[in-house]
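Hello,

Following up on my earlier ticket. Below are the two sequence lines again, exactly as submitted.
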Amino acid sequence: MAPMDKYAKQLYDALVNLIINLHLQKGSLTREEMYCLLNVVDMALLDKEDQGLVQVLREWQAGEPNQEIDEIIKVTLLNLDFAKPASLAAGVETICELIRYNKELGEAGTTQEPPQSE
Amino acid sequence: MAMLEMEPQAHLIDLESERRVLSSMLHSEEACIEACNSLQPRDFYSPQHATVFELVRSLYEREVRPTYVELVKEAHTLGMLTSIRDAEELRYIAEHYIYDGNIGFWVKKVRDRSRLRSFEAFIRKSYQLLQEETDRDVEQVLMAAEEELTNLTALEIDDHVDSPEEMARMGYEEVERRFLRYREIKEKHKGVIPLDGLPTGFYNLDKITLGYKPGDLIILGAQTGHGKTSFALHTADAVAVKGDHNVLYLNTEMSRQQIALRWGSILSGIEHERVRSGEINESELSQILRGYNDLMQSGFYSYPCPNLTPEKTISIARKFKAQKNIDMMIVDYIGRMDKQDPRLQEWQVLEQIVKTQKMLAQNLQIAVMCLVQLNPDGSLQGAKRMKNECDLMLKLSPLSKDDLETNPDLQKYDVTPNYEIYVDKNRDGQSGIRIPVYFDLARQTMKDPKRVSV
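Thanks for your patience. The regenerated structure is below:
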């Protein structure tokens, strides 16, 4: 674990607390959504091995919204086993594919069926 | 009994220090190692803090990095984080930030308060005893109190004084064990010696030392380029690959790739230069793969660490003892450890390092092997002090041309020995012995040459 300064610790803790509150207090996150976001926080802020997931999530956020594809990405994320590198790598590949497909759609300006993820 | 159940005095409770220790454990691995090693759940006054400590420690022992996120997930899974109030309490603990380097200070505060609370409870109990029981044997009462008080002052569990009976019993049992083993060697094993400790990788060295034992500090000295790393990896091979034990190998000068490549030639018996350049055929590639498969199943853990300090070796060793239950640590080599205090002379630094490693070996009950560099004349800086601290001091050096020509004994082996291990000190047995070995420089392997009748 790389040493964290006080600011980094505060930022990390604030994010974790926010996610817990959204589940426990506001009920706006399910248990699975809370676990998924907590895992992403650990990967993004503590340099945990992520198989490129954080970078892919950044690309997803920077892209055009597409309700259907976004929903598939969310389901993919919720089904990831963050403790297993193979599961993470497979998830990253699926999300990459979906992002690429969405980008192509945007460039073509057409609506197509999203690719079937395995 | 009412007095016994009283709360400790307020100044003996330091909840803030407890929170600071826990917060630091969630944000720094070093802090986690220090706290896990120095504290017990009972040292925390708050039951909630004790529970958090136990959760963090259990994550750490299961090799899960004990971050705030992991703690939250663990507590939630166990049904200990179900309300916003639980979350608030965890948040309050987490935000007690400290500079992680100060963890020792806060750990000491928690432990000191815990010990004082135990002392207070002892005084209360003794006072109660005086009030309630008047006809007990005074000698007995005072002796029991003294024993309890002595236990309170002893920081470590190994602070134990052996009575004459215990010492005599222990001595007899040890001699009897050795007697039975000797008989077994003669009758069943036909002279092959079962070891007391870990295999050294050399038959004659096994015979002299009976293996590297828990708590042993072994020092191996060799000049630059005279096979220190090869000896270390030969030891690791004997203990972790061919043997069934876990070894932590700390290397201060080689990269991960270099260490991994070395194993390729050691385990396959193919020349290192050819492995390095890739000049091998397909059958040799399969041979190397088989070797790496053995490594994969072994208990060899490598930690390349160019800026190693004595303090760092302590925390790394503690971590691997807790998580991998290592039996041995090899430090390759201590001359490259960073100086913590630049005012110290080289020999003072080495002495300090060696003392730390001996303490580490005893506290963790593992064998620690330190590799040191000999001067060009074969001497060792701070040798006397190092010799005092260690249990076994070995020196590895090439045999001179003169030795090979003038010593006919060296011709009585299947391969002519080109190196020797000199046993300079052996706390448990004979010293001053020279053991001829064969060092295959091309393959970076070492072996015992076998005696043949001429």
